[in-house]
Amino acid sequence: MKIVSDLLRQADPLNDDLRRLDEARDQIRRTVVTAASVARPRVPRRKAALGAAGALAAALIVVGLLVGLGDRGTLRAAVRFEMRLAEAQPIPGLIVARVADSGRVIYLHPETIVTNEDIAQSWVIQDGPDRFSVSVEFLPAGAERMRQATAIHLGHPVAILIDGEVVIAPIVRSAISDSAAITGDYTRAEAERIASGVGIR
Amino acid sequence: MSGQPIVSALAMTVEERPSDRVAALFDAHHQRIYRLARRLTARADDALDLVQETFLRAARAPKSVPVGAEQEEAWLVRVLINLRRDQWRRAAVQRRHDAIAAPQLRAEPDHGPAVIARTTVWRALDRLPPRRRAVVVMHELEGLAVSTIASQLGISAITVRWHVSAGRRDLARVLASRHGDYE
């Protein structure tokens, strides 16, 4: 009789796999610490504002904003953000688009999964000395739509559009839920513009 | 006067920045969390994703992480296993969908006996539900005592023993169906 415990120890992937952690440690640490250092979420602040005095103040602010933006009629995002499912192969009814950096052609589904309306917060992440990307975190409803859409889209691309341009179209390896990274080799100024712009609804 | 009240007073007056807390949390626990994640997943990349997501949960709500090394570790382990369980459920749905949509025969690559044996063991592990797999890994590979596992997972020692026993039985059954008798 062979012993299951012995087999498990012989087959342990850590026997030759610890170096992968060494290679990725710094990047993961940087991502995590950056996420923790971001000025924190709108949701708690919004809840706090819903006290008796806060509700009145919020109503006055909304009125003020609408009056101030009367010439435009609606509130508009400074940077238009959307995510759509996409395909690598042409399918009738899909929209042809080109990924900004690589020039790769993809085919966009007409429906958007999430937009600026679904973003809870966004922040800049430094990928290298002069390279920056943007991370966005979705509100629960948007996260759920992302999860449902991407869970049945594994192995196919999902496109992130900034101001109507496909900036990145990664292949979905596992269902995406509450956050996404926009890695576009941006300068700090560009990344900050996107991070602050996408959060405006 | 003992030292305890002074420590308590300091903790109340000096508020740690969230990023410092999370950095310290990462430095103290990332190796342990990676070891467990690696043994719960099929690929190193998946394990690294799990590690990052686990610490991001702490980064988004640092005040929800209890204070103290053991408590921190237990909190992180539970988050990790819950994340893995969510992935496992989604993958199960996807597998069912794939099986219905496009049943396919997959050829096994031509590997040596050692690789085949290792692959067989880890495929058998993949069939265990995440919490049971975590208990088996923590007990058999990490050598943790039943009481420690119970404490880290927030379950009773009886439940841990049951998972260990059932996990061994499940593994033996899967392995025996392919390569003979195991216990």
Explain briefly what this protein structure is.
Chain A has 201 residues and is of the alpha+beta class. Chain A is built from 6 helices and 9 strands.
Structure, explained:
Chain A is an alpha+beta fold. Chain A has 2 domains: 37 residues, no CATH class; 123 residues, Gyrase A, domain 2, CATH 3.30.1360. In chain A, the strands form 2 sheets. In chain A, strands 1, 2, 3, 4, 7 and 8 form a 6-stranded antiparallel beta sheet that branches. The longest helix of chain A has 19 residues. Chain A is globular. Chain A starts with a helix and ends with a helix. About 19% of the residues of chain A have low confidence. By secondary structure, chain B is mostly helical. Chain B has 2 domains: 94 residues, Rna Polymerase Sigma Factor, Chain: A, CATH 1.10.1740; 73 residues, Winged helix-like DNA-binding domain superfamily/Winged helix DNA-binding domain (Arc Repressor Mutant, subunit A), CATH 1.10.10.10. Helix content of chain B is 77%, strand content 0%. Chain B is built from 8 helices and no strands. In chain B, helix 2 packs antiparallel against helix 3 and helix 5 crosses helix 8. Chain B is globular and about 55 Å long. Chains A and B meet through helix 1 and helix 2 of A and helix 2, helix 3, helix 4, helix 5 and helix 6 of B.
Topology overview:
The complex is a heterodimer of chains A (201) and B (183).
Chain A: H1 4-10, H2 19-37, H3 42-48, H4 52-68, E1 81-87, E2 95-98, E3 105-108, E4 114-115, E5 119-128, E6 131-138, H5 140-151, E7 158-162, E8 165-168, E9 179-186, H6 188-198
Antiparallel strand pairs in A: 1-3, 1-4, 1-7, 2-3, 5-6, 6-9, 7-8
Chain B: H1 4-13, H2 18-40, H3 44-60, H4 69-101, H5 113-126, H6 130-141, H7 146-153, H8 157-179
Helix pairs in contact in B: 2-3, 2-4, 3-4, 5-8, 6-8, 7-8
